[in-house]
């Protein structure tokens, strides 16, 4: 797949705090041209998470690939393109057994050592962060800075595995993050500033020149 410069994350809890409807936000991202969208819902019951993911997959159609956070079962049942897991979730090998070899499987990393281990696994992309301080999600890790993003990009260069930078990324910071060698920026809360569609379009225009 062609890897896009913007990897949008629809976080249900963040939408709730902002008083926004998750499906409405998903529609806004898709209408803006987002082609890679992760659905994240840490506190949502499984049935509701499946319903939401399925609805977004239907809305996306062929316009975008939908990734489900953490839940390989929901990714499979909803028809999503793949799943993203963290260091404490199912192992990548186990996820692959569930979703198959064609699915997108990404993994979060927070250090060079974790990135090296991830690159030995059957992953589709590697996420590194938090790049900057963030209050959107609690990772248990301090901000890693642009230096680590650059180091992981160099590690991954020979494998052609895309590197996704996440954590505290804003529109102003995004070009500098890409300049370190990251394939894309993964953005949650900054996409909800003002109109989500306009904000997503601004990212795409900024990052594609």
Helix content: 40-55%
Mean pLDDT: 95
Head-to-tail CA distance between termini: 20 Å
Helix and strand content put the structural class at alpha/beta
The third-level CATH topology is TIM Barrel
Q: What is the count of helical runs?
A: 9
CATH architecture: Alpha-Beta Barrel
Write the H/E string, N to C: EHHEHEHEHEHEHEHEH
CATH superfamily: Aldolase class I
Main CATH class: Alpha Beta
- Indicate the multimeric state: single chain
Low-pLDDT runs of 5+ residues are none
Overall number of strands: 8
Please give the largest β-sheet.
8 strands, parallel, barrel
**Tally of distinct domains:** 1
Order of adjacent strands in the largest pleated sheet: 1-2-3-4-5-6-7-8
Shape verdict: globular
Computed over alpha carbons, the radius of gyration is 16 Å
Strand % is 15-25%
Question: What report would you give on this structure?
Answer:
With 209 residues, the protein is an alpha/beta fold. The protein has a single domain (6-208), classed as Aldolase class I (TIM Barrel, Alpha-Beta Barrel), CATH 3.20.20.70. Helix content is 42%, strand content 18%. It is built from nine helices and eight strands. It has helices at 12-18, 22-32, 46-60, 72-78, 92-99, 112-118, 145-157, 174-179, 196-208; strands at 6-11, 36-40, 65-69, 82-85, 104-109, 125-128, 163-166, 184-187. An eight-stranded parallel β-barrel has the order 1-2-3-4-5-6-7-8, surrounded by eight helices. The protein is globular and about 40 Å long. The model has no long low-confidence stretch (mean pLDDT 95).
């Amino acid at each position: 797949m062609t890897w896009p410069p913007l990897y949008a994350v629809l976080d249900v809890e963040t939408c709730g705090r902002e008083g926004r409807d998750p499906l409405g936000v998903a529609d806004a991202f898709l209408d803006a041209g987002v082609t890679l969208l992760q659905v994240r819902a840490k506190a949502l019951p499984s049935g509701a998470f499946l319903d939401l993911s399925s609805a977004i997959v239907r809305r996306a159609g062929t316009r975008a690939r939908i990734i489900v956070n953490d839940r390989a079962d929901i990714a499979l049942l909803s028809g999503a393109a793949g799943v993203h897991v963290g260091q404490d979730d199912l192992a990548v090998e186990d996820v692959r057994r569930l979703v198959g070899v064609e699915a997108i499987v990404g993994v979060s990393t927070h250090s060079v050592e974790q990135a090296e281990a991830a690159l030995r696994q059957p992953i589709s992309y590697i996420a590194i962060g938090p790049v900057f301080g963030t209050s959107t999600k609690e990772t248990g890790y301090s901000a890693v800075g642009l230096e680590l993003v650059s180091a992981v990009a160099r590690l991954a260069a020979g494998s052609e595995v895309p590197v996704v930078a996440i954590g505290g990324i804003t529109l102003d910071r995004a070009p500098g993050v890409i300049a370190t060698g990251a394939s894309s920026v993964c953005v949650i809360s900054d996409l909800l500033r003002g109109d989500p569609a306009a904000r997503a379009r601004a990212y795409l225009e900024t990052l594609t020149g």
